[in-house]
Amino acid sequence: MQVAGGRLTFLGQPDVIEVSGSAYEQGRIHGQRARQAIIANIKEIRRWMDEVSSRGRRWDHEGVLSRNERFISRVSPEALEEVRGIADGAGLSYRETLELNAPLFVAASFLPLDCSQLLLRPPATRDGGTYLAKTRDLRGWLDHVVLHRREAGGRELAEVHVAGSVTWPGSGVSSDGVAFSTSGCWSPRTIVDLDRADASWLLTNGHLLLRDSRTLDEFVAHLDAQPRMCPLNVVAADSRGGAAVEVTADRVYRSDAEGGVLIRTNHFLTPEIRAQVPTPDENPSSYHRYAVATRKLRAGGEAWDLGAMITLLGDHEGYPQNSICRHSQNGEGSDTAYASIAVLPAGEFWTTLAHPCGVQAPLGR
Q1: 299: pLDDT confidence band, cut at 50, 70 and 90?
Q2: Could you give the dihedral angle defined by the CA atoms of residues 271, 276, 279 and 283, in that order, rounded to the nearest 10 degrees?
């Protein structure tokens, strides 16, 4: 399916949820269109929280949620209006919808977000375009949606969200030609200071970064300034450049694309912060996916285009858990929940809300 909308074009499988108007109205449309997926996601996060509690990990869930809500109300009150719209549109309570947007179930339980991020730009691409590709891998399953936001002035944003959430998209692109993606960096040494819930986003808010940035440099500056609790790999690009940004709770470390290629999975490369992230023994999948993507992207010469990138996102070398496209077995391990590719400067956004293996490149390109 191809949906043309102004300056952004959507390629791939899913229906795109078109939203516009006030923050509340955008949320209401999202809630109506994705009601069943939101209900399923709320059930899943409660299962995860119960599982963590059963292992003896305790925290003041309601207290943290309330403190983080107060923080959001100060820095981004429109986000809470959108959450209220989602709840009303889906016929759910505001409080349970807030849980998807103040995601303690990720920050406190170290829910693996074992994503892969692949950036190619000139001189490494055949057509001179920039491709930012991403998979999001989860242990358990959360349904996702693609939102197409139309602002009053004609500007557009496309983002992939867990259905019912708007504060931690995994990837997105704007009609200004800025794209980003994320991947988590958890290890046994990760410390998340929940006492900062009244002063920080639990996870980096990629929607605000994309909304407020017109260039790559602006995106990195806004990321540096945004208060957050959790470590993260972020890859961002515009038509002039691309960068990986390794994010801790108090610093960011930027590395620009060398030779047009950048890969990030679930560990840091910056020497001074590598001790914070998993070792090869702790997360062999992260290192294997990084090595496979590096080898294949650098061996491809200038042959890379959208079709080749889609094929790489579905790669099964190291199957089922060490491959870029991951498959749980009998309920164990991670699954690739979605994949996306932003194409710049064309303003194209390809997505599949399922395993990318076997997906064909869009026709007519």
Answers
A1: confident
A2: -130
